[in-house]
Amino acid sequence: xxxxxxxxxxxxxxxxxxxxxxxxxxxxxxxxxxxxxxxxxxxxxxxxxxxxxxxxxxxxxxxxxxxxxxxxxxxxxxxxxxxxxxxxxxxxxxxxxxxxxxxxxxxxxxxxxxxxxxxxxxxxxxxxxxxxxxxxxxxxxxxxxxxxxxxxxxxxxxxxxxxxxxxxxxxxxx
Length: 174
Ligand SMILES: C[S@@+](CC[C@H](N)C(=O)[O-])C[C@H]1O[C@@H](n2cnc3c(N)ncnc32)[C@H](O)[C@@H]1O
Prior knowledge:
- This protein has 174 residues and is of the alpha/beta class.
- The protein has a domain at 2-119: Rossmann fold (3-Layer(aba) Sandwich).
- It has helices at 9-16, 29-43, 45-48, 89-92, 101-109, and strands at 2-3, 22-26, 51-55, 68-71, 114-120, 134-144, 157-166.
- The protein has a seven-stranded mixed β-sheet with strand order 3-2-1-4-5-7-6, sandwiched between helices.
- The longest helix is centred in the first third of the chain and has 15 residues, at 29-43.
- The radius of gyration is 17 Å and the shape is globular.
- S-adenosylmethionine (SAM) binds next to helix 1.
């Protein structure tokens, strides 16, 4: 599942890497249309047949089961939002006081065994208590950050980590 698919970057990568099926979810219908168009344009109709679009909020994730949920959540701490141009602010809102509120929301509602999320290193994800999820960092990259981050990353770049959260296996059904 690509939760918050936007224009479909993660969806395209997963389908191209051979995912059997991808559910692309976003609460913005225009994002779903963009994702469908990008999959067809970039990968063709065979890949489009392996894609399901789902217009829903992250608070509605629970009924949907998947092997892995990937998310690149909004993560600007609220204090940084005034520096985001007003017409783009809605795209970056949701991080809350510490930047981790959107990630917490996904973890609170996801039914998948694994969640993989990006998180800027400055956000101190390591201090999160994501119980019942176990967490480990699986990748990192040094990337440029847009100017709205300048009060915490004055050099204009920083590390983005990918964290994997996994749930203990549920007991076998009788
Ligand atoms: C930072 S963008 C990431 C887009 C894409 N996954 C990528 O990596 O390029 C976050 C996406 O999450 C979606 N989103 C934010 N809050 C959401 C929520 N509560 N429920 C569903 N989608 C949400 C936004 O509409 C946006 O498309």
